[in-house]
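Quick one, probably user error.
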C-alpha cells in the first residue's frame, strides 16, 4: 500500500451513527486496501463525574462500568462480524479513559491516517456541546477525520457493495 490512506480507525460508541460509520469504514477499507481498526472507549471520565456529582455511589459506578465494558465487547464483536462478511479483517482496540485523549494516543501509536466517526448528535445545550467527546476527538485528532452521514446511502452501499 502506498496511498494517502493506509490505516483507518473507526470510533464506535454504540450509537446508530457510529455503526453507520463502521459500515462506511469497512467499505472504504475494502476499496482502498487499508488496514482497519475499530475502537470502543468506555468513558471513565464521565463515570467519575457522575460519582463526584453524587449521581452514583461507588458500587453503582463499578457495576455501570462493567456493563459498559460488556456492551463495548458486543459492539466490537458486531463490527468484527460485519467486516468479516465483506472479507475484511480488523484489529479491535477496547479501552477505558478519556475518549478524545485515548483516540489521540491510538492515532499516534498505530500511525492512523484517517479517523472515521459517526454524524454528531444534535446539541441540546451548551453542556452537551462541551461534553461531546466525538467532537472533541475530531478537533484534537492528529490525522484527517471523516464524518459519516446519510445512513440510508451507507446502508445501501454496505448491503449491495461487494
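Nope, works fine. Designed sequence:
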Amino acid at each position: 500500500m502506498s496511498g494517502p490512506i493506509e490505516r483507518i480507525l473507526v470510533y464506535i460508541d454504540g450509537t446508530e451513527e457510529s455503526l453507520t460509520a463502521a459500515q462506511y469504514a469497512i467499505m472504504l477499507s475494502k476499496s482502498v486496501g487499508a488496514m482497519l481498526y475499530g475502537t470502543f472507549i468506555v468513558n471513565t471520565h464521565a463515570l467519575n463525574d457522575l460519582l463526584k456529582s453524587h449521581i452514583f455511589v461507588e458500587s453503582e459506578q463499578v457495576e455501570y462500568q462493567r456493563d459498559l465494558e460488556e456492551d463495548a465487547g458486543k459492539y466490537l464483536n458486531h463490527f468484527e462480524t460485519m467486516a468479516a462478511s465483506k472479507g475484511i479483517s480488523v484489529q479491535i482496540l477496547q479501552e477505558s479513559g478519556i475518549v478524545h485523549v485515548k483516540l489521540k494516543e491510538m492515532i499516534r501509536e498505530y500511525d492512523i491516517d484517517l479517523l472515521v466517526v459517526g454524524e454528531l448528535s444534535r446539541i441540546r445545550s451548551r453542556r452537551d456541546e462541551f461534553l461531546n467527546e466525538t467532537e472533541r476527538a475530531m478537533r484534537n485528532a492528529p490525522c484527517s477525520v471523516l464524518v459519516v452521514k446519510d445512513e440510508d446511502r451507507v446502508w445501501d452501499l454496505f448491503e449491495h457493495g461487494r
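The chain has seven helices and five strands.
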